[in-house]
Structure formats: C-alpha cells, structure tokens
Amino acid sequence: MEETPHQAADPLTDRKADVAAALATPLTSSDRCDRCGAQAYLRATLSSGGTLLFCAHHGRAHRDKLADLAVELYDESQRLANDPQRG
Ligand SMILES: [Zn+2]
Questions:
Q1: DSSP conformation letters of 3-65
Q2: In which band, very low, low, confident or very high, does the pLDDT at 39 lie, cut at 50, 70 and 90?
Q3: pLDDT tier at 21 (50, 70, 90 boundaries)?
Q4: How far is Cα 62 from Cα 67, in angstroms, rounded to an integer?
Q5: pLDDT average, residue stretch 51-76
Q6: What is the percentage of the chain residues whose pLDDT exceeds 70?
Q7: Which one-letter DSSP state was computed for residue 84?
Q8: How far, in Å, is the centroid of ligand 1 from the Cα of 43?
Q9: Closest of 36, 85, 87, 18 to residue 52, by C-alpha
Q10: Using only C-alpha atoms, what is the Rg of the chain?
C-alpha cells in the first residue's frame, strides 16, 4: 500500500477524504477498456498493484477470471441497466 503524503493541517479530515476516494473513485469517460477502447465500466485492481479496465462487454467476458486475479472489482456496469443487450 502506498502512503499519501500528509499536507493538510487536519490529519483526520485528510484521512477520511483519502478513504472515501479509495473506496469509490468513479470511472469516467476517459477510462477506456484495455481490450477494445470502449468506455470502461469495470476496474479490476490486481494483487500486483496493477489496474485493468474493461467495458461492460469485456467485463462480463472476463469476470470469472478477474474474480480470481483481482483483489478489488469496481463495477459500474449497472449504469447500463437500460441497455437492451445486457446479459
Ligand atoms: Zn471492451
């Protein structure tokens, strides 16, 4: 785990902000699937510290493998719940 340097005057406030950001850093339109370049809706953090990004399609395709490899899966694919091709 890497430490963020503490520069804020109030370390408690600073720590709270760090935890919240680590728990739910949202994916943005600039996050792209590593396989096809579409917008990413799933982020897998690996035990090695690396990060993989997948679109909803490739996220589903690789999900079983990612569940084994990743220490954390952040999934925003429910934002596509209205997609008629879902599932
Ligand atoms: Zn993709």
A1: PPP--SS-HHHHHHHHHHHHH-----TT-B-TTT-SBP-EEEEETTS-EEEE-HHHHHHTHHH
A2: very high
A3: very low
A4: 9
A5: 93
A6: 64
A7: T
A8: 12
A9: 36
A10: 15
- 35 CA to centre of ligand 1 in angstroms: 5
In the chain, where are the structural domains located? 28-87
**27 Cα to the center of ligand 1, angstroms:** 14
pLDDT value at position 34? 96
Judged by DSSP in three states, 71 sits in strand
Contact 57, 40 (CB under 8 A): no
The pLDDT, as a whole number, for residue 79 is 81
User: Ligand 1 centroid to 6 CA: how many Å?
Assistant: 37
